[in-house]
């Protein structure tokens, strides 16, 4: 590994972790300012409270339906590869993304139905 490659690698990691730190810092300082502004105006700060059980339930539904969509995409991609002349990479990737997206959309409607 040459000196130029080492410099690029080091700069990549510094930039990557610096970006993560910057986003987290910006998020927490902005959130703190919003809460302080609400306290100054004597407004109700209950909008910031989130039920952790409800969030976990929605996340698990979304994750489960995403994985079901990916699995179904792999299965349909395999069927398309065997049954047609479609290239293997195209069949697998297109079906995985198509069914994963369908799983996420259906999880949105399912979570909205549970909420109501």
Q: Can you offer a commentary on this structure?
A:
The chain folds into two domains: 49 residues; 67 residues, no CATH class. The protein is 84% helix and 0% strand. It contains three helices and no strands. The mean pLDDT is 86.
* Order of helical and strand elements: HHH
Which outline best applies? flat
Strand content of the residues, in percent? under 5%
Rounded mean pLDDT is 86
Largest sheet: none
The number of distinct structural domains comes to 2
Question: How many angstroms separate the termini?
Answer: 59 Å
Low-confidence stretches: none
Structural class: mainly alpha
Using DSSP, what is the number of strands? 0
Number of helices: 3
Q: Rg from C-alpha positions?
A: 23 Å
What fraction, in percent, of the residue positions are helical? over 70%
Keywords:
116 residues; mainly alpha; 3 helices; 84% helix; 0% strand
Topology:
Layout: H1 3-40, H2 52-83, H3 88-115
